[in-house]
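Subject: DNA-(apurinic or apyrimidinic site) lyase structure
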Amino acid sequence: MAKAACIQAIVTLKQAPDDKQVSFRIENLDSLLPQNNSQETFIANTQQVLSDYFLLNVDADALFETWNAADNNFLARTAGLKGIRLLRQDPVETLFAFICSANNNIARITGMVENLKKRYGRNLGRIESANDSDEFFEARIQDFYSFPSVEDLYCENDSVERTLRELGFGYRAGYIAKTARLLHEKEGGGENWLLALRFTPYNSAKESLLELMGVGPKVADCILLMALDKYDAVPVDTHVWRIATRDYGVTNGGKTLSAKTYKIVGDRFREIFGQYAGWAQSCLFSAEISVGGGGEVRPKKRKMIKLDSIDVKEKEFGEDEENSVLDGMEEKSKIVGKVKREDLVVEGKRTRKTRTVFGMGD
C-alpha cells in the first residue's frame, strides 16, 4: 500500500446525528494553499490521507461477516460494536506514543504526547469558534501542533532526556531520547527505516522493533498492528489474556503472562480470525472494556490448549512490559464509524469551512 500524501493542516471530523456520514473540514484552508496548488488538489490530498488513515480500502463489513460466521462468541460480544476500525497511523508517532504508555494511564499518556508536540513539534495554528453553537462542532480556542520527527527528538547530548524528565516523563524520557538516537543512526533515516518495516515479514519487523529502547513484545505488536500493516499482530495484555482463557480454550498453570503464553494466545487468535486477527482482537478488547462487554455469553465448546506442550523458550515480562499495553490500547482503540471509500463526495466551496462528506452506508 502506497504511503498517503502528506499534509500539514488542522482537519476536524464530525459524525452526523443519523450516523450515516462523517464530514471533514480543513481549517483556514485559504492560508494553506501554495501558489501552485489549487483548493481541489489540497482537498483531494486530504481525502487521500483520511482514506489511508481510516483504512477505507478494507471492507470492514465483509470482515465482520467472516468473523461472525467463524466464531459465535465474537458475534455475541461485538454485536453493538460493528463500526470499529483499525487506524493506519504514522509509525514515528505510534512508536513514541507507545513508549509513553509504559506502566501508565490514559490521562498521563495524553499529557505526555501533548508535551512532546508542544515542545518539539510545529505549531499548526488554532481553532477559534465564534460561539458555543458553531454549526460544525463545539470547539475551544486551542493551539494544535504536529508530532515531532525523529530529527526533532534527536540530540547527541542528554538535553532531550533532561527536558522530558522536567516535563514529568520519568524513565520514559531516557527511552525516547535513546530511541531517537538509534533511529537517527539508521541508514536512510529513522522514518524511512520504520516505513520499510511495512514491507518486512511480521517476525523480522518485530525483531527490528525490539532493538529499540522501551519496546517490548506487546508494544512492538501494537506498533506493528496500528502503524506497520501487520494486521495479524495480536497484542496481549491482561484483558486479552482473560478473553483467551475464558472464551478460547487457552489454559496455563501459572499466573504470569510469559513469552510462551503470549505466543500461544496470538497463535490462537490467528487460527480463528485469520490474516486480520489483530483487528478482530481489537474488537473483542473494546467489548471487554466497554459497559456490559464482559456479560455472559455461551461460546462453542473448544478444545483446551495446554501450553506445556509447546516448545517455546519462556521469559517472564517485567511489570512495565506487563502493564504497558492496556493503557495504550485503550487510548488507540476508537469506534469511528462504518465508512465506505466509494461514497466519498466533495462539496466544492472555497471557504474556511470547506467540507467533505464521507458516506457511511446503511
